[in-house]
């Protein structure tokens, strides 16, 4: 299971009580923060997200509506006397910006920050249960999407069957990986008799700010849940293209090409006070679409 | 008349639905912004302050709770297609911080920003009706207070009397400055016969973040309205001193020494969910005290 909580769904500027981009991804033992527009720490407070539990922050690009809230959050974590390391993944420059501001305020944090610069597509974080990959999208400045995946779950040992077939425990790991058991007398016992399937491994793709870029579909093929920006409705397709943003229909097209299970739209332009039409337009191309609403937790 | 609207009254971090420091000072034709903590542009929206009318921003010091909202506000002004110049007064470093962030986002503003570095105490802005002075306070890093004053109003011509005494209009300016009229036949007509007093010239002192620093009183003598930080109650006087902050009683003492007409307390620590006790403590020393409440407009 994987859960995405929306902290901001507006583009560029705060408006209509909508905030700039930020999301919390809860996956296995992790609470990841993706982007951190101005006011993110206030939004966390409003939705009872405890920032101390966040150990990894992913910043897609250095337009302000995706990171101006970071310096305030980092400062607050320090004032809360955080001690454990925080890792920040971002394009270059962010470390310089943050360090210059701490220098200006003569601020010394009580916890270490590890900055990781995004340079190549591929895995940027993994442990036994989870991988995070980054992939390039098509924006006016360097910009990255992130793909969060639970690792394919190993098969589960059936405890009654392994006793019944007298399987030595030294072979359990091999069974969990899906192999058959071959006994000393050369008898094969099929894996399916000894194990049951593990849980579904969930996945989530955050496609950041991007113009229409069908190459994204290959990177996130068969993803359970994807977030794709949809700054404009179809009528403003030309403006979207000029500004390296997408329309509702373009987001839906990428979701269809990716064979995603569900699409979340966000990053709505402030010209739209009402965002219902985004869902209507996108659903014509990709039915299982929702508009990302602040404070709502979406499950994959 | 002079009006101060509080946009943030909390210290260090946002808490209890209170925000970091920011204030709007309306004086004559001006709308000045003083400090700009994270979320200031959202607070302006909440309280219907139009940021396009602000042409001068005063930043007291470079602790984040006093300026982390500035970069977002400047960006929004650009997205709103502002064309006219904005002047920012601050300690050194701020220009570097702002420019680095615009460089990282490849952002080109459609309006010019003029950065003015605070170096000496004294007048930093004036026109025919208003002066703004800066003065040093006592904080962990370089920090400035600001004194906003209407210029002593010129006397008003009494239109009936100048006709009655047959005064040529070329002498009106001299009369407004308080001089008597001497006729060609060497007859003196007293100023008081020809003019009436102008309105009271109002003044406001923003004393920023500071430890107890009685020298402030001399700089702002007889001010109509003063804002003094009051991060802690009296019980935490030691902690206040260590952190270069003030208590309610210390703020009141400075107000008394300054012979101020009215005191506003603010910059409350997040350890206090309820702030009423601040007024109680301060009023014992300086009666005309109020706690600065967000969204409220205080008149001097």
Task: Give a description of the structure.
Two copies of one chain form a homodimer. Chain A has ten helices and 18 strands. Chain A has 300 residues and is of the alpha/beta class. In chain A, strands 6-5-4-3-2-1-18 form a seven-stranded mixed sheet. In chain A, helix 9 packs across helix 10 (276-283). The longest helix of chain A is centred in the N-terminal third of the chain and has 11 residues, at 94-104. The N and C termini of chain A lie close together (6 Å). The mean pLDDT of chain A is 96. Chains A and B meet through helix 1, helix 2 and helix 3 of A and helix 1, helix 2 and helix 3 of B.
Give keywords.
homodimer; 300 residues; 18 strands; alpha/beta; seven-stranded mixed beta sheet; 24% helix
β-sheet strand percentage of chain A: 25-35%
- Inertia-based shape of chain A: globular
Tell me about the biggest sheet of chain A?
7 strands, mixed
- How do the helices and strands follow one another from N- to C-terminus of chain A? EEEHEHEHEEEEEHHEEHEEHEHHEHEE
Quickly describe the structure.
With 300 residues, chain A is of the alpha/beta class. Chain A is 24% helix and 27% strand. Chain A has helices at residues 40-46, 70-79, 94-104, 159-164, 172-176, 191-194, 215-219, 237-242, 248-257, 276-283; strands spanning 2-8, 22-27, 30-36, 56-58, 86-90, 113-117, 122-126, 130-136, 144-150, 156-157, 181-182, 188-189, 195-196, 203-206, 225-229, 262-266, 289-291, 297-299.
